[in-house]
Amino acid sequence: MQIAAICQLFPLFETAESETLEGLSAIATEHEYPAERAVVIEDAWGNAIYFVISGWVKVRLLTGETEKTLAILGRGDFFGEMAILDESPRSTDVVSLSPVHLFSISAQRFTQMLFKDGKFQHRLLQLMVKRLRQSNLRLQLRGQPSAVKLANTLVSLAESYGQPLESGINIYNLPHQDLADVSDIGLEDTHKIMEKLDSKGWVKANPGDQTLQLLNLKQLMHLAGRV
Fold first, then answer.
1. Is the Cα torsion angle 80, 78, 172, 70 positive or negative in sign?
2. Which ranges carry the Cyclic nucleotide-binding domain (predicted)?
3. pLDDT category, 110, cuts 50, 70, 90?
4. How does pLDDT run across 78-98, given as a tens digit for each residue?
5. CA distance 148 to 142
6. Is 101 exposed, middle or buried (0-12, 13-18, 19+ CB in 10 A)?
7. For residues 75 and 161, is the Cβ–Cβ distance under 8 A?
8. Of 6, 58, 184, 221, which is most buried with the most CB atoms under 10 A?
9. How far apart are CA 35 and CA 22, in angstroms?
10. Are 107 and 86 in contact (CB under 8 A)?
11. Is the alpha carbon torsion for 168, 169, 173, 179 positive or negative?
12. Taking residues 48-65, what's their average pLDDT?
């Protein structure tokens, strides 16, 4: 990828020094995975950080035979940095939800970039704090009705990864189990709420291209308590 495209697509590189960006193409390795493929595996040592050029992945926690989706990541986001920073095995795995195009930077190279570029290091901290705030918001919503939690998830996905269209914003049409997990609600509630939102004309699933169209983001934000 060209430097200008990287800066535009990935917020992490917005403030990086020119020297950091100029060497990026030489150390980055591109990958393509089909849907439902493990990209990184729990308990594996963190040997790289990954950046999502296109497609969607989920961060998943496995406990025995039970799995729980912790987060959904899309275009412009990254994962794998925690295992590099604390030099510990990964605590979760990452699975592609759709065909996904990524590039990776080895742990050694990434650490060197952080040491050499203070602005890049600071930007990483900012984005990690943003993720922490999002986790705190989920905790604050624990006592809220299921519809409020689910609406917050849809709004957050739209804000982070949504593709604007004339008639709304497109996000990935998540399997309801994943949507239930990240919203911290039950699967049956998720089915009912999504059917209700569809009947109101606020959302519309497009199975052909696996997208979910948010037709009335204003009402979803109101339901989520964002306005």
1. positive
2. 12-131
3. very high
4. 998 988 888 777 778 999 999
5. 10
6. middle
7. yes
8. 58
9. 32
10. no
11. negative
12. 92
Distance between CA atoms of residues 137 and 139, nearest Å: 5
Can you identify the CATH homologous superfamily of domain 3-139? Jelly Rolls (2.60.120.10)
Measured CA to CA, the distance from residue 217 to residue 224 in angstroms comes to 10
The CATH fold of domain 143-223: Arc Repressor Mutant, subunit A (1.10.10)
Computed over its alpha carbons, how large is the radius of gyration of the chain? 18
**Domain residue extents for the chain:** 3-139, 143-223
Amino acid at 118: G
Q: Give the burial class of 79: count Cβ atoms within 10 A of its Cβ; 0-12 exposed, 13-18 middle, 19 or more buried.
A: buried
Q: Which of 162-166, 179-183, 184-188 has the lowest mean pLDDT?
A: 162-166
* Helix segments in the chain, DSSP class H: 3-9, 18-22, 24-27, 81-85, 107-116, 118-140, 146-161, 176-183, 187-199, 217-223
Return the SS3 of 125: helix
8-state DSSP, 224 = T
Name residue, tokens 């035979």.
Answer: 65
